[in-house]
Design brief:
Layout: H1 31-44, H2 48-61
Helix pairs in contact: 1-2
């Protein structure tokens, strides 16, 4: 390895992974929802926030729609 490198001749380029980066958001979730995902996280060894992201990503991929009609 060299002691020094000359980066002045190096060309810049865009980050190819920039579109896949996660964006931090604030979201209010019910205590039971958080508990559910935390329990699954303990079982699987995957962080609960990652599990929530995976579930939402699956919803996007399969075009799941929620039924928000209130039944009497």
């Amino acid at each position: 390895m060299k002691d020094e490198y000359d980066f002045s001749k190096m060309e810049s380029r865009k980050n190819p992974y920039a579109s896949k980066l996660k964006k931090p958001v604030t979201i209010r979730l019910s205590e039971d929802v958080i508990s559910y995902f935390k329990d699954m996280a303990d079982e699987s060894g995957v962080p609960y926030q990652s599990l929530i992201n995976l579930y939402l990503r699956d919803c996007v991929a399969t075009h799941k729609k929620i039924d928000i009609n209130w039944h009497a």
